[in-house]
Design goal:
Helix content is 40%, strand content 15%. The protein has helices at 3-10, 25-30, 54-67, 114-129, 134-142, 153-161, 214-226, 257-275, 284-287, 295-301, 327-372, and strands at residues 72-79, 85-91, 100-106, 143-148, 172-173, 178-179, 230-238, 242-245, 280-283, 306-312. Helix 4 packs across helix 11 (327-372) and helix 8 (257-275) crosses helix 11.
Length: 375
């Protein structure tokens, strides 16, 4: 982070005024921050029902690491185009048994502020409840969580300082005449074949090549190095109230499509049960639009079995400018959906394996008893 900008962010001084969704996009794009956030002093008073500038999120990550040293470590992932550090949190209980990994990233699109808010909520819920909540305790016993709260850091900061509706990264193209790559069109999954643009001025500019951006290189390199152990890849977006499975670049289905739909629908039902919010489940090509180069499709293509995009609230009333008054309810219901997915991942990898081991043990004991009973 650049020193001066980082100082302002750490103090929580750069915050936008309310951007009414009835204003024109031109007016919104011209708005610059101008409201002061209430400072928070200690982790216990960190307001999870507020949107936070990047400096506060960096500080939050450090304090989470320091408070929960027994289960949390903070790791460097890479540097952004504008030379800001990317960190992820690893939540893991020590174990002698092999564990699977759950990956979650938020904020690949800069203007989707509710996504980083959920990543922080998820971390908070796991850490505050894993000792007393049997469901979360069981999951953490067998799963490690890797959480990247903001993937597109440069773009996210730009939405706080200059343009609330900025979507892309902040890389420079065409000799500085246009800026930003859509990082969710930059992955090596039928790159730039459909639903993406080679025009650097486009919102869906796919970059100069697959994984051309430092942010996607950092994420993809890390995921590739761990892919044998990653059971589930979750990428959080807004808006639209959707749970999307692969694929976006083709109407063909993955070999576990029915399982993905079944797990996704169960998650949507759990979400609805919390506050009555309706989500649709399906592939992007079927229920949203065609896209190529998405991280979700790439993750499935490299062999990660469960891969989902969550498009959080709402359906367009506020769109990307979801009011802070909806953060808590959005996060509460999304937490139910994510836990539902994790329950199914757990059942697939541990309950089934335990049942097989139990049957095998019973069979061996039965054979031993038979042998011992022979005259």
């Amino acid at each position: 982070m650049k020193p001066l900008l980082g100082t302002f962010y750490l103090l929580g001084m750069l915050v936008p005024g309310w951007l009414g969704y009835d204003r024109s996009l031109t007016q919104q794009r011209q708005e610059v921050v101008g409201k002061v956030v209430s400072p928070w002093r200690i982790l216990e008073t960190y307001p999870y029902n507020r949107y936070h500038p990047m400096g506060e999120i960096y500080q939050w990550m450090s304090e989470i690491r320091e408070k929960y040293t027994e289960v949390v470590t903070q790791h460097f992932l890479g540097m952004t185009y504008e030379s800001r550090p990317m960190y992820y949190l690893k939540i893991s209980q020590p174990s002698n048994n092999p564990k699977k990994i759950i990956w979650m990233d938020c904020g690949i699109h800069a203007r989707e502020w509710i996504a980083p808010a959920f990543c922080q909520w998820f971390v908070k819920e796991i850490l505050q409840n894993y000792k007393d909540n049997s469901r979360i305790r069981r999951l953490l016993k067998n799963l490690d969580f890797y959480v990247l709260p903001v993937l597109n850091i440069d773009g996210y900061i730009y939405t706080w300082t200059t343009d609330r509706l900025w979507r892309k990264s902040r890389s420079s193209h065409n000799n500085g005449t246009c800026f930003g790559t859509d990082l969710n069109r930059n992955f090596d999954a039928s790159w730039c074949s459909i639903g993406a643009s080679h025009n650097c001025e486009s919102l869906t500019f796919c970059g100069t090549g697959p994984m051309s951006e430092p942010e996607t290189k950092a994420v993809s390199g890390f995921i590739e190095s761990k892919k044998e152990n990653i059971a589930c890849f979750l990428t959080m977006h807004s808006y639209g109230q959707l749970i999307l499975v692969p694929y976006g670049y083709t109407t063909n289905k993955s070999n576990n499509h029915e399982e993905l739909i079944q797990v996704g629908q169960k998650a949507a039902n759990a979400l609805k049960a919390k506050h009555g919010t309706n989500y649709r489940v399906g592939s992007s090509a079927d229920i949203l639009y065609a896209t190529s180069g998405s991280s979700r499709d790439w993750a499935r293509d490299i062999g990660i079995p469960f891969s989902y995009t969550f498009e959080l609230r709402d359906n367009g009333t506020y769109g990307f400018v979801l009011p802070e008054t909806q953060i808590q309810a959005t996060c509460e219901e999304t937490m139910e959906a994510v836990l539902s997915v994790l329950d199914d991942v757990y059942e697939k990898y541990w309950y089934t394996n335990s049942a097989i081991k139990a049957k095998s043990t019973a069979l061996v004991l039965s054979l031993l008893m038979s042998v011992m009973s022979l005259p």
